[in-house]
Amino acid sequence: MINRESGTPVYLQIAYNIRKKIVDNYYKKDDKIPTEDDLATLYGVSRMTARNAVTHLVDEGYVYRIHGKGAFVLNSKLNRNLNKLNNFYQDIEKLGLSPSAKVIDFIERLPNQKEQNVLSIQRTEKVYDVKRIRYVDKAPLGLQNFIVPKKLVPNLPNIDIETESFYEYLEEVGYPLYKADQKMESIYAPDIAEKIGVSLENNPFFFFERISYTKDNTPVELLYSYFHGENYSFNITLYSDS
Question: Is residue 184 within 8 Å of residue 208, measured between CB atoms?
């Protein structure tokens, strides 16, 4: 239920519980979630706390309100915020779900011309080329392929990147990520669907290409991500120039 001794606000804990039920398809699209009064009774909290929990889910894009009728499920997909440089483990754990990974390729090789350019390395400086299938609650979600200069993380082959966060490891070795340049597109990728074991059907993949930097503008990682469109959505906040 909720832990009042936790440092996490109670309304967020309630929102996490409802969100997990949405992601797990306990509540399906357009299903009505419990009313604020029902949530207040269920969790032993004030109606204001219950309202804040529902508002949080509305802000995240999981539910919508209809005046006089209540709140209904808008989206059962995993929702990630593209305005922040979070890692996969952080985002999925915040949803109250269990992230994991399986390494399917780990290669030490010389960089191609593009990698030399974006990572600011010489053609004789080797890179690690790593491919991992990403899982949420043991279900395949997508594939990520990162390329990183060997000289920055020489001990990477000894790190268990199936259970540990690569970005947290970068922080530990002195290369915390500060910013990234990223582009996104929708692609039809039957080869990726086959690799991760999902049905392509009519759902494309979200494809991302990202270059991540430290605060002193050192390029650390070239990342290619493929996430199945059936189970994934994204939030982006836009601002006007005025």
Answer: yes
Count of helix runs (H) and strand runs (E) in the chain: 7, 10
Looking up residue 106, the CATH number of its domain turns out to be 3.40.1410.10
For 34-173, list the strands marked E by DSSP: 63-66, 70-73, 78-81, 99-109, 127-136, 139-149
pLDDT averaged over the chain? 85
Confidence of residue 238 (pLDDT cuts 50, 70, 90): low
Report how far apart the first and last C-alpha atoms of the chain are (Å, whole number).
44
CA angle 122, 128, 133 (to 5 degrees): 145
Query: Residue 43's closest CA among 80, 85, 13?
Result: 13
Residue 110's domain spans which residues? 82-235
Overall domain count for the chain: 2
pTM score, two decimals? 0.67
Rounded to a whole number of angstroms, the CA Rg of the chain reads 20
Given a contact cutoff of 8 angstroms between Cβ atoms, the answer to whether 56 and 39 are in contact is no
How do residues 59-83 score in pLDDT, each as one tens digit?
877 888 888 888 988 765 566 666 6
